[in-house]
């Protein structure tokens, strides 16, 4: 949700700026977009499709997730010339690193998770259980690269509570920047 | 009249093509962030 909001915000700001500068808004010229669709498929089947999700073993789901992230990194490589993509690649690498180091899922501490679900739900889950879509409940002491895990939260009064990682923040910034600049490097933007 | 129709046809084609390109770019980027990001609101059933 927060990541989709970044795309939408980037689109709105990009359209507004181009209207202000009296130039047409161009679609970011993404290369090999089919790679993203291909990369998303393992996640769609093992994590997002409810009927499949419960049947797929955790080991297979985590392997699918890692393969998916590697394919997305390949997509970033093909699009490395576009501004904002290096931020997407950096955020993706952070998430990939912490997930690979912790068995293929994004670690989240029970303390952070307690802000997201009722305490009864959390009590029923033990350490090492899957949580949410891509997360796994792990104590900070058991987590590798804990500073890259889902341990950021919005202020307590915020109506929408979500745990996110440093990588998520960088991905959101990259998506926003890509939409604002339409993938054009800054030098090109200044000269046009 | 013919010219007007031709212009309208060309404009419609242009708009459609651009709209499709925007939609495809948005879809690509949406799938990318959904795939690469891992925020959790604990919404999906835990098992």
What does this structure look like?
Chain A has one domain (2-191). Chain A is globular. In chain A, helix 1 runs parallel beside helix 8 and helix 5 runs antiparallel to helix 8 (166-181). Chain A contains nine helices and three strands; from the N terminus they run H-H-H-H-H-E-H-H-E-E-H-H. Chain A starts with a helix and ends with a helix. In chain A, strands 1-3-2 form a three-stranded mixed β-sheet. Chain A is mainly α and 192 residues long. Chain A has helices at 2-20, 34-48, 50-53, 58-78, 85-101, 110-113, 119-124, 166-181, 186-191, and strands at 106-108, 130-131, 135-137. Chain B is an all-alpha fold and 47 residues long. Chain B has one helix and no strands. Chain B has one helix at residues 2-36. Chain B is rod-shaped and about 60 Å long. The interface between A and B is large, with 56 and 26 residues.
Q: Roughly what fraction of the amino acids of chain A lie in strands? A: under 5%
Number of beta strands of chain B? 0
Q: Give the distance, in angstroms, between the N- and C-terminal Cα atoms of chain A.
A: 34 Å
Supply the number of helical segments of chain A: 9
Side-by-side strand order of the widest sheet of chain A: 1-3-2
Alpha-carbon Rg of chain B, integer: 20 Å
Helix content of chain B: over 70%
Shape of chain B: rod-shaped
Low-confidence stretches of chain B: none
């Amino acid at each position: 949700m927060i990541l989709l909001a970044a795309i939408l915000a980037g689109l709105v700001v990009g359209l507004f700026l181009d209207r202000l500068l009296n130039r047409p808004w161009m679609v970011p010229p993404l290369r090999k977009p089919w790679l993203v669709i291909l990369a998303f498929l393992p996640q769609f089947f093992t994590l997002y499709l409810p009927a499949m999700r419960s049947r797929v073993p955790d080991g297979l789901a985590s392997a699918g997730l890692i393969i998916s992230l590697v394919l997305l990194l390949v997509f970033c490589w093909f699009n490395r010339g576009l501004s904002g993509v290096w931020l997407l690649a950096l955020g993706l690498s952070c998430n990939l690193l912490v997930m690979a180091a912790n068995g293929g899922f994004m670690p989240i501490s029970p303390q952070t998770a307690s802000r997201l679900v009722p305490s009864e739900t959390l009590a029923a889950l033990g350490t090492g259980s899957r949580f949410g879509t891509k997360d796994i409940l792990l104590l900070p002491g058991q987590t590798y690269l804990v500073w890259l895990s889902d341990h950021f939260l919005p202020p307590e009064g915020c109506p929408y509570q979500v745990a996110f990682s440093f990588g998520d923040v960088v991905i959101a910034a990259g998506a926003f920047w890509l939409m604002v600049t339409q993938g054009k490097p800054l030098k090109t933007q200044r000269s046009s | 009249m013919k010219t007007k129709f031709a212009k309208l046809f060309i404009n419609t084609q242009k708009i459609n093509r651009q709209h499709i390109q925007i939609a495809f770019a948005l879809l690509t980027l949406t799938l990318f962030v959904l795939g690469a990001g891992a925020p959790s609101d604990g919404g999906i059933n835990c098992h």
